[in-house]
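Recall the central idea of this unit: under ordinary conditions, the amino acid sequence of a chain determines the structure it adopts. In this exercise we apply that idea directly, starting from the sequence alone.
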Amino acid sequence: MIDKTLYNENSIESLSPLEFTRLRPGVYAGDTTYATQLAVEIFSNAVDEFRLGHGDKIEVSINGPKVRIRDYGQGFIPNSFRDDGKTILEAAFSVLNTSGKYREDGTYEGTSLGSFGIGSKITTYLSHWLDATTFRNGEWETVHFVEGETYSHDGGKINPADMGISKDTTGTIVEWEPSEEFFTHPEVNASELKTLFKTIAALCPGLTIEFDDNGTKITYFSKNGINDLVDEAVENKELIKNRFVMNYQNDKNKIDMVMTYTSNYSLTLVPYVNTGLTANGPHISQIKSLLTREFNKFFRDKTWL
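Accordingly, the structure predicted from this sequence is:
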């Protein structure tokens, strides 16, 4: 009888990134109750493009389990092959730890939500199929994946008569169908996306998000930026209407802050970094320390009768 408490030469395995992700989908996708995270990953890439100054509209549509996200950003460089034989577009959706956001002095420095080269890959790995199409410099390219593997590739010059688009068109379209093998519910949780879109629109004034939820269309656009989020958060508890608003930018370093006074008895601090909600970090402790110091100084300097 084999002693299963002892490992042998067959016990230690090496898995490819695709095999590992499909074996342990929660490592990269987090909660696998719904396939919502796959949409969030692709949407985040589109938001990064807007924050960099490319494209002011993102289209998101859900049709049953199928999802489609289209941005009007730079687009990938089409039909550009790497040394491994893959195009840049193909590698971006299939080779783990592949990204244009690693370098601290790179194009996306200071603007990107994701920087690990994982997001779009998990969408490819955990879907029955995924199509990625990009437009740039008068060219187009499409790569088609089935069960995480490259299935077909095509590309060429843009012909407006054939494709119905202009040679000046830029951006990326990603369509996919999550696999029920990895998610309890392979569809997207639309309510979570609606909350996300409302928040992102406020954090990214000027961005229009068009959401088609199985035929029900909603457009998200914020006129007042973070103030719109504050309006919803404070409701009728605000005691001082003259809010403190700060918008400061130094090159790619930027801070937007809104502060108000409510009837609550404790501080509520809602911090975002590059549109991502954060729970802790030096930016939070520094803001708290600064506010405490300045308020203490203000009241110490006052002469009370």
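The CA atoms of residues 110 and 147 lie 34 Å apart.
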